Amino acid sequence: MEGGYAYPTLDEPFLGTAAAGWDDGARGIRPPGARATGGMTAEEVAEALRLTRDFLIASNPAAAVVRGGHPQRALVKTRGDMAFEKGEGDGEVVVRADHTFVHPLVQTHPGAEDVTHTVVRRRLAVSLMDPDLWEVTPGTLRVIESRPEIVNAGCDTADGFIHPVFPSDLLGRTPSPAVTGFDPYDRDREIPDAPDAPC
């Protein structure tokens, strides 16, 4: 602890962050209880919720933290909400999910102790449709909306990797107003159409 503030460490990578008390990985993706809606049975709604959860797990927490390319365990903190509603027509249920995933990252060179975080918020809307009423493949989701926001990923390099900023990178530099005035952990904030958050 320095100056009364707890900084993340290699052993406690979420220390001092808003995500410290969040759930680990997939435990933070909790679907609500299913009930019949929109001409879909409770079992069909439960399937839609399960497929949505499986999709979020496969596309987000599985990435985890990479330590030299060989992660030993999945270290991701997750918080979010999931709900469902009737679709535009009979035989359709829409699932809406809004989750934030916090990935701790470390440098790979020997002796590095810096820990930083990439924060990914994802708002997703999908639907499951009755194949007896719609021309769809049974058991598949239709994506209605997928709106991501990624903070501290280095969006100026298009090489397929993230390039986060570490605390040591900021020594002697004054953070920009956009960085100091932006809270990536604020889940009450709307995700803008054209995100202007620092990446």
How would you describe what is shown here?
A hairpin with an 8-residue loop joins strand 3 and strand 4. The chain is elongated, with a radius of gyration of 19 Å. By secondary structure, the protein is α+β, with helices and mostly antiparallel strands. It is built from two helices and five strands; from the N terminus they run βαββββα. It starts with 22 loop residues before the first strand and ends in a 19-residue tail after the last helix. The longest helix has 18 residues. The protein has a domain of 134 residues. A five-stranded antiparallel beta sheet has the order 1-2-3-4-5.
Which properties best describe this structure?
five-stranded antiparallel beta sheet; elongated; single chain; 5 strands; 11% helix; alpha+beta
Question: Which helices and strands occur, and which strands form pairs?
Answer:
Blueprint: E1 23-24, H1 42-59, E2 77-86, E3 92-106, E4 115-129, E5 142-151, H2 177-180
Antiparallel strand pairs: 1-2, 2-3, 3-4, 4-5
Region (Disordered): 176-199
Brief summary:
The chain has 199 residues and is an alpha+beta fold.
Q: What gyration radius follows from the Cα positions, in whole Å?
A: 19 Å
Q: How many individual helices?
A: 2
Structural class by helix and strand composition = alpha+beta
Question: How confident is the prediction overall: mean pLDDT?
Answer: 83
C-alpha end-to-end distance: 27 Å
Approximate shape: elongated
Strand order, sheet with most strands: 1-2-3-4-5
Low-confidence stretches: 63-69
Report the β-strand fraction as a percent range: 25-35%
Largest sheet: 5 strands, antiparallel
Name the helix and strand elements from N-terminus to C-terminus, one letter apiece.
EHEEEEH
Summarize the amount of helix as a percent range: 10-25%
Number of strands: 5
Region (Disordered): 176-199
